[in-house]
Write a structure and sequence with these properties.
Elements: E1 19-23, H1 26-48, E2 51-55, H2 62-70, E3 82-86, E4 88-90, H3 100-109, E5 119-120, H4 129-141, E6 153-156, H5 172-186, E7 209-212, E8 222-225, H6 227-231, E9 235-240, H7 246-254, H8 261-266, E10 278-284
Parallel strand pairs: 1-10, 2-3, 2-6, 3-5, 6-9, 9-10
Antiparallel strand pairs: 4-8, 7-8
Length: 291
């Protein structure tokens, strides 16, 4: 009888913007994300007194949210000092099965001990859902010192069409996002990293939240954080799992750099470009291109 055994070795991380962490399966990947998030949360609480976390909905990150609740390794997560934000929301009621806030609230809000006033849902059915959430973000983050008035950790997913948050290819909100990016490529950006650091010469502060409705938006309509808000964050994590995303990852790897606004309109996730933070991809083996 042989004493040897097979080691489940994950594929080599693909050449994506930022850095990439690859694990052989979803379970191991969830551990990697949870550990990184825990360290980042503790560091932010020590440095700033609180931790601003923005989470995406959907089925992909749900095992992570559950792990944070039941695993003893994460019992020390600083939920009492955490502000919980929602990356994007469908324009449905909170009791609708399609509501991102519903699943996040039922998993984390109800079991973590986070103070209710530090959980910030998007009231997506309101006519001013975008501007109201933007105002809340600005008012809450304004308590921090200048330069630290930004989100600390944003967890994103990616669709097979390369959308992230609710920024779909060729959708109205994305097109609105790309105009200042086009101006930025011709001009100079402010050196200050914060949610208000925009393009030099712009009078109005950059948009942090937009409604995305109409053509090229997968129904129902959405309310979403903008690329500007996400890119101002201290840490951007992108969780991608499953063979259904492998072709998209291959396309992203093969896209020439630097990317142009036209490319971002086709592949929105390539609009992620941290202004002064870290971008890290988390992939399971199934999502990685074949060697």
């Amino acid at each position: 009888m042989s004493d040897s055994y097979e080691i489940d070795t994950p594929p080599k991380p693909p050449a994506l913007p930022g850095s990439a962490v690859v694990r052989p399966n979803v379970d191991a990947l969830v551990d990697a994300i949870a550990a990184d998030m825990m360290v980042h949360a503790m560091n932010c609480v020590r440095s700033f007194g609180d931790f601003h976390l923005a989470l995406s909905g959907g089925s992909t990150p749900l095992p992570l949210y559950k792990r944070l609740m039941y695993d003893p390794n994460y019992r020390g997560f600083p939920w009492a000092r955490t502000h919980l934000w929602i990356v994007d929301e469908r324009r449905v009621a909170f009791d609708d099965a399609k509501s991102n806030f519903r699943s996040i609230s039922e998993t984390i809000g109800d079991h973590s001990g986070i103070p209710p006033e530090q959980v910030h849902p998007i009231f997506a059915m309101a006519d001013d859902a975008d501007t109201a959430y933007e105002t809340l973000l600005r008012e809450t983050l304004a308590w921090r010192e200048p330069g630290h008035d930004r989100l600390d950790y944003v967890l994103l997913g990616m669709g097979a069409d390369a959308h992230t948050a609710s920024l779909f290819p060729h959708s109205p909100a994305l097109k609105q996002e790309l105009e200042p990016l086009r101006r930025a490529s011709r001009g100079k950006q402010s050196g200050r990293v914060s949610i208000d650091a925009g393009v030099e010469g712009d009078d109005a502060p950059p948009r942090l939240v937009r409604i995305n409705a109409g053509e090229n938006v997968t129904p129902p309509d959405r309310v979403t954080m903008t690329l500007h808000l996400i890119n101002a964050s201290r840490f951007i994590g992108v969780m991608v799992t499953g063979k259904g995303k492998r072709g998209t990852i291959e396309k992203l790897v093969a896209t020439p750099r630097p990317v142009t606004p036209d490319v971002i309109e086709e592949l929105p996730i390539l609009g992620l470009s941290p202004l002064g933070g870290t971008q890290r991809w988390y992939l399971d083996a199934d999502a990685c291109p074949a060697p």
